[in-house]
Write a structure and sequence with these properties.
This protein has about 525 residues and is α+β, with helices and mostly antiparallel strands. It has three domains: about 1-65 and about 275-370, no CATH class; about 85-105 and about 130-270, no CATH class; about 370-520. The chain is built from 17 helices and 23 strands. The protein has helices spanning about 1-15, 20-30, 65-85, 115-120, 120-125, 135-140, 145-155, 170-195, 205-215, 220-230, 235-240, 260-265, 380-395, 440-450, 455-460, 480-490, 505-510; strands at about 45-50, 60, 90-95, 105, 110, 160-170, 245-250, 270, 275, 280-285, 300, 305-310, 320, 330-335, 345, 350-355, 360-370, 370-375, 380, 400-410, 420-425, 470-475, 515-520. Strands 9, 10, 11, 12, 13, 14, 15, 16 and 17 form a nine-stranded antiparallel sheet that branches. A four-stranded mixed sheet has the order 2-1-5-4. Helix 7 crosses helix 8 (about 170-195) and helix 13 (about 380-395) packs antiparallel against helix 14. The chain is globular.
Length: about 525
């Protein structure tokens, strides 16, 4: 027992490798020192994390092993999907990838987000086959508006070849549909005339798209126009891309809020969340791609990095467990030692072991560790918020409204403090305006409160220390403005996901200046 305690104490000491020390090494390499001070393989660049999960951008060292692993995971997930869905290898994907110009360190090494680094790497450029409708010139276009337009234009021109519609995160797919609502008339005009709009000024992108357009195609333009003119856009993805067999994007964690929207737009074709990855390492793949997105688990690939886990079960936090010794039902935070110098690096994700595939554990993504709301003694996690949101969207289901975006914060500027949720709503029928029914919105507030945990419900009473939950409805396009704010700070357009909880005063200001209406729960929770 003494030896075991000594081992655990040693593990705990090693785990507390001071991050400031690691950052010092990273800075030294960025300034031109040899990378062998932290890695046996040459550091070829630095990856910029999205900053939208934990609120802070991180710069992480990377080498070619990272991109080789990413290419392997992408190939593996394609094989897995093809085993479950017949005929997908014969078609193409409308893939919404985006890039921007990378920055460089003083020593000349590139600094950019992980997906963008991959898209600019030889692993992507020299891939065996192009399975996307867009040429690489569209993906590499640094103007994201031009890239989005051209992705949609190429995808619609090649609609008969399309078997899937995909993005890295769900937000990009929802954003693509919103963009199409505003630009379908112009896209149809381009298809009818065979000429790309003059405002597409990136020459390599313009030339590549012109080649795909060929001559004018009035029949195709009329077909697209007919679908887009219809009152409802329910099922618009499968109406425009009639051979679509599945939608692919990350749908776990904070991206789960977009599941109802994608189900609405896709006519309930399978929604596949294919893999679990980060800027630090690849973790694993979803070997059961046709499961419901709410039930996704990821099978870990032990060759990607060296994984150990910090036990996160309530009352048992702190014990470090090897990959081979995790237990079904228990909660863990992964610590990764990778090939580019990170040692027992805390990911900040909380995972639950859901089973095993052969001998490899499968994990369900539960939440980000520090993404919580709290104004008193209660703690409301990302998972709690998603549960409450699922119940509230059932209330909306009977209305003509669709929830397009959500985030939240703990407002302690008032007495008592209370939870504030920002919602962006739109009408299900494209030509209708948003009409807010006070009874429906108040019921959404009450439903969310009733869904929170027992501690919240006990503290939340009429004269207690937690005030009534508030929903603030914002103008359409507000969450795009929020995305642009985070991108201006360095976040990747491809990797962007709306934070479930926001602490940044600047980000909150973007939301506050677009508030249209406010609604409060009108009941106290039962003791």
């Amino acid at each position: 027992m003494a030896n075991l305690n000594q081992k655990q104490a040693s593990q705990s000491h090693n785990m507390r490798l001071v991050l400031d020390c690691l950052l010092c090494y990273i800075q030294r390499i960025a300034n031109g020192e040899p990378s062998d001070i932290i890695s046996g393989k040459p550091i070829t660049g630095f990856l910029l994390s999205s900053g939208t999960s934990g609120g802070k951008l991180k710069i992480l060292p990377a080498n070619n092993k990272f991109f080789e692993d990413m290419a392997f995971i992408f190939a593996l997930r394609s094989v897995i999907i093809s085993k479950h869905i017949e005929g997908v290898q014969k078609g193409k994907a409308v893939m919404f990838y985006f890039t921007k110009a990378p920055s460089t360190t003083p020593s000349g090494l590139p600094v950019c987000p992980a997906i963008m680094s991959y898209l600019l790497s030889d692993n992507f450029k020299n891939r065996p086959a192009n399975c996307f409708t867009s040429p690489d010139e569209v993906t590499s276009c640094p103007d994201n508006k031009q890239a989005m337009y051209c992705h949609l234009l190429c995808g619609l021109v090649k609609r008969d070849e399309v078997v899937s519609v995909a993005a890295v995160f769900a937000f990009s797919l929802v954003g693509a549909i919103n963009f199409l609502e505003n630009y379908w008339t112009e896209i149809c005009s381009n298809i009818r005339s065979g000429h790309v709009s003059e405002w597409i000024t990136d020459l390599s992108c313009r030339d590549a798209v012109t080649n795909i357009l060929g001559g004018g195609n009035s029949k195709l333009a009329d077909l697209i126009e007919e679908e887009c003119q219809k009152e409802s856009w329910k099922g618009i993805i499968t109406r425009l891309w009639h051979k679509t067999k599945y939608i692919q994007c990350a749908l776990t964690g904070q991206s789960a809020q977009y599941i109802p929207m994608l189900e609405f737009y896709s006519n309930n074709v399978p929604l596949i969340s294919p893999n679990y990855a980060s800027s630090e390492t690849m973790f694993g793949v979803n070997v059961n791609p046709l499961c419901k997105p709410q039930n996704v688990s990821y099978t870990f690939m032990p060759t990607m990095s060296y994984f150990v886990f910090l036990l996160a079960d309530e009352g048992s936090e702190g014990e470090i467990v090897d990959l081979a010794n995790v237990k079904i039902g228990s909660y863990y935070e992964p610590l990764i030692t990778n090939y580019s110098g990170l040692h027992r690096y805390r990911m900040g994700d909380i995972l639950q072991v859901s089973g095993f595939y052969n001998n490899s554990p499968q994990f369900r993504f539960v939440r980000r560790k520090n993404m919580v709301l709290s104004v008193n003694l209660e703690v409301t996690t990302e998972e709690d918020i998603l549960k409450a949101l699922n119940h509230a969207t059932l209330v909306l289901k009977n209305s003509d409204l669709l929830l397009m975006g959500l985030t939240s914060y703990s407002d302690i500027s008032t007495l008592p403090g209370h939870y504030v949720f920002y919602w962006e709503l739109k009408a299900k029928n494209i030509n209708d305006t948003v009409k807010l029914d006070n009874k429906v919105m108040v019921k959404c507030c009450c439903t969310m409160e009733e869904s929170f945990n027992e501690v919240y419900r006990k503290i939340r009473n009429r004269d207690g220390p937690i005030g009534a939950l508030e929903i603030r409805v914002v103008r359409q396009g507000t969450f795009n403005s929020l995305m642009e704010f985070f991108i201006s700070l360095g976040a990747s357009p491809s990797q962007y996901k709306t934070p479930m909880c926001i602490n940044s005063t600047e980000a909150l200001a973007v939301l506050e200046q677009n508030v249209l209406a406010r609604f409060l729960s009108d009941r106290s929770q039962p003791l």
